[in-house]
Amino acid sequence: MNRRKCRFCQAQLNVSFVDLGLSPLSNAFTELGKINGGNRFYPLHVYVCEQCFLVQLEEFESPQDIFGEEYAYFSSFSESWLQHAKEYVDNMIERYSINSSSKVVEIACNDGYLLQYFKERNVPVIGIEPAGNVAEEARKKGIPVVSDFFGEKLAELFVARGEQADLIIGNNVLAHVPDINDFVKGLKRLLKDGGLITIEFPHLLALIQENQFDTIYHEHFSYFSLSTVQKIFSYHGLTVFHVEKLLSHGGSLRIYARHKQDFSRSTTTTVDEIIKLEKAKGLQDIETYRLFFQQVEKTKRNILAFLIQLKNEGKRIVGYGAPAKGNTLLNYCGIRSDFIDYVVDINPYKQGLLLPGSLISIYEPERIRETKPDIIVIMPWNIKEEVMEQMSYVHEWGGEFAVFIPNPKVLKL
């Protein structure tokens, strides 16, 4: 235990947050002909630092191994996420005068889902994306992409080329960074004087309150409260001056940060308000973290009871979506094809493969229309309304939708 140290403050990690047993990498999909090769499983055990309250996993595989040349997640397959990105771009141009004279850099730009909207408005952009296959999709949209991992070293290369940023964007990337100090140092170095950083990340408070344990997987190294993020940014010379609550990913925060010595933007009341809320909800009390696992264990029992009852009633159950969160849940609960016949996913990259660990087959969405199952479990519960609208035809044969998180239930229209 003593060898585990906090990746921010280096304090020893002695307090367990949740232990989800052994699990494979959540995007390590298996080819049909390679079942005998199996998956490599790692402990999915999360700890919390008693000093800074950073919730974190040990690093078993490097980001290079996880994200490398091939990555299975493409942001543009979600219509609601594209709309979220477009609204952000419109807002930044209007509120912060981002224009054709600005330089916008997005870290983990994925397939260009967001930068394409800046490009349409003639704003110069650069993407940073280590996964070769998704970076290539961004380049097809005319977006210049640097295929590398971000940190202080890469930031120095940008500075040497005279490419410091007026706006740095990082959506759902902070959790994927094992060396959080190097990452934030890079942000500080890359940002122009008077520049602006926006970072979006799932809020730890939502994870605890909404029982979102399935958002824990090996590709996520850390889970953040605002108070912890504020400490990390402040330590590296950056000030969080504004925060917005978002509905995305089950409850996220978007922070706005600037150089500490830049007083052109004053700190809004939103920062103190959310930190006070976190304190009131126990995020600065170590006992809050100790109790979370009991809640997760109860949910596991409820999910299995829910599935057993449906199967005993003769229901045919399938899954919609093959997201990372779904793989965490299936493996922790021991759910295989004896409960869920198959899953479908709109991403062609995943179709024809098997889910990691559970080895449940993945098909194209049309499979549901062909087989007419009774229950469709929506694995990406954060976009359940979008999925239900897309798949509304299942009611033609009496099909119903269900979710497992925060608790298992059949959804009512």
From TrEMBL:
Keywords: Methyltransferase, Transferase. One of its GO terms (biological process) is methylation. It comes from Paenibacillus tianmuensis. Residues 248-406 form the C-methyltransferase domain. The lineage of its organism: Bacteria, Bacillati, Bacillota, Bacilli, Bacillales. This is Methyltransferase domain-containing protein. The keyword Transferase applies. Residues 6-67 form the Methyltransferase putative zinc binding domain. The keyword Nucleotide-binding does not apply. GO terms for molecular function: methyltransferase activity.
